Task: inverse folding
């Protein structure tokens, strides 16, 4: 019995950051943790400042998190921040929370990080110049192979929407130059890996958007499809014969079947995932369907990372009216993905078989 692993140790271990203290992050964390008995599902540690936690709790009259939720206090140089006002102080705080969570996760203390929203402009005021949390996570994991995906489950039908962005936080004018066959190779590879490893889909159907209106309409409305996107897609079908890769699909029609699957307007066979070529091409439809339910997850990391799909909402910060729906979905998805990865790892180990005697490490 002494060698048995405690059932509690088998629970997914989540680091939950507070985000920008001037935004709604601390509020939605308090609300999410008070929403249900998470102890039976995961071991959750809040990574933040005790001063921020206590101040938010008192100001909004919220109950403390349930028994069993741990707290990792991150010391701050300054707590001079006000609700709804981005500042160097609030940016330094949210940056420190995430850096601590990353370090602990890379060291093996957590299986996943769930991040409350931050303000990129506040990070810049604090002297931290990153496009967002995703890039800091990738840096901490020492990888340049990563992608920003969004996952949401329909409350109407139970269908799951999965969308990956080929490019993220760059100006629209920079998109055609940033999109290359090498970038698309990386993003499609990440998506295929995630579908199998995290969702158990081994023969996926993936829809890939065109860049231009009507996917260029044979070169009349843009030439990128004809010049390289269609030849690239042909090569990927040969490279991944187990996957159905449809595209380039005109961006204005690619989202019709997902919307039908989401709202249950009629029986429809939607794709397992959607690859959008730039930020708004993917996130306008995702947020239109799944706002407050969609979850941002970073592909390519050695650990799970999820986040709500909304921002700091400075306009309602400190008013007690923020909804925790998306953060709850982010916690639930992180738990599911940790479990799926463990099962996938065990399956790979079984397929490899036992290590021959004498070769044990």
Result:
């Amino acid at each position: 019995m002494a060698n048995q692993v405690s059932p509690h140790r088998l629970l997914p271990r989540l680091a939950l950051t507070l985000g920008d203290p001037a935004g709604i992050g601390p509020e939605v964390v308090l609300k999410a943790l008070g929403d249900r008995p998470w102890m039976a599902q995961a071991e959750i540690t809040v990574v933040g400042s005790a001063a921020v936690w206590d101040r938010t709790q008192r100001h909004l009259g919220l109950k403390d998190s349930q028994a069993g939720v741990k707290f990792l206090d991150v010391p701050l140089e300054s707590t001079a921040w006000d609700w709804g006002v981005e500042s160097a102080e609030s940016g330094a705080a949210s940056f420190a929370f995430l850096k601590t969570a990353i370090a602990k996760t890379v060291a093996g203390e957590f299986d996943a990080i769930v991040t409350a929203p931050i303000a990129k402009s506040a990070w810049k005021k604090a002297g931290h110049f990153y496009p967002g949390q995703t890039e800091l996570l990738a840096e901490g994991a020492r990888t340049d192979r990563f992608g920003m995906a969004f996952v949401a489950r329909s409350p109407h039908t139970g269908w799951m929407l999965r969308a990956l962005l080929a490019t993220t936080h760059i100006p629209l004018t920079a998109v055609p130059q940033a999109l290359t066959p090498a970038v698309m190779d990386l993003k499609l590879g990440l998506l295929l890996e995630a579908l199998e490893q995290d969702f158990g889909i081994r023969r996926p159907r993936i829809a890939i958007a065109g860049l231009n209106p009507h996917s260029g309409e044979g070169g009349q409305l843009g030439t990128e499809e004809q010049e390289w996107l269609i030849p690239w897609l042909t090569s990927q079908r040969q490279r991944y014969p187990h996957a159905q890769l449809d595209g380039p699909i005109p961006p204005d029609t690619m989202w019709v079947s997902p919307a039908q699957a989401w709202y249950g307007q009629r029986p429809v066979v939607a794709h397992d995932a959607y690859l959008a070529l730039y930020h708004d091409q993917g996130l306008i439809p995702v947020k239109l369907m799944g706002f407050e339910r969609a979850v941002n997850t970073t592909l390519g990391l050695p650990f799970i990372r999820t986040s709500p799909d909304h921002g700091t909402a400075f306009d309602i910060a400190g008013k007690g009216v923020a909804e925790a729906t998306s953060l709850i979905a982010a916690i639930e998805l992180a738990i599911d993905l940790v479990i799926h990865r463990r099962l996938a790892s065990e399956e790979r180990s079984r397929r490899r078989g036992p290590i021959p005697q004498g070769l044990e490490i």
